[in-house]
Amino acid sequence: MKKLMVNGVASITGSENTEELFVLEGTVDVDRNAQVIVDLSIEIEASQEIVWQIQTGVEQWPTWQKDITQVRLSGPIAIGSTFWWETHGLQIVSTILEVEPMKRIVWGGPAHGIEGVHVWSITPTPKGVIVHTAESWDGPPVAADPDGMSAALSASLNAWLAALKSTAESLQLTSAE
Q1: For an engineered disulfide with 34, which of 12, 79, 138, 140 has Cβ 3.0 to 4.6 Å away?
Q2: What distance in Å separates the CA atoms of residue 97 and residue 118, rounded to the nearest whole number?
């Protein structure tokens, strides 16, 4: 089992690994020791509120992300809530690990032998926001093909950011009319 420290409280994430995870000054971070870490950003010309609403409206993800086919959220967007989702034919259950409304959301958990942690932050700019995402993957499937897994994760996150940008900027234009 993997122990996760969130705001000084330990919880178990379900991994066979016994390393402690990712606390950086009271915030949850990706696993900086993971075999694969992808770190990307994109500028979006939309308000922080619109981007936050789209990103945290998890049950609406399939309407703007072609790779996600189903999502079911277990409760509010809050620490400890889980959501079940299907992407690229894989079923995943993620647990929300941190929420700082309008600014930051983190989720993670085990999926198909991969322990993942996904951090999203939204920072206002004069033209809109910068969305930064970092995700770590570790586990036996990653060890078997780290280059392939890194390429797959990079492609997936780039597609997610592009879809988020397109959706948010389209909504921003609609709300400005």
Answers
A1: 138
A2: 9
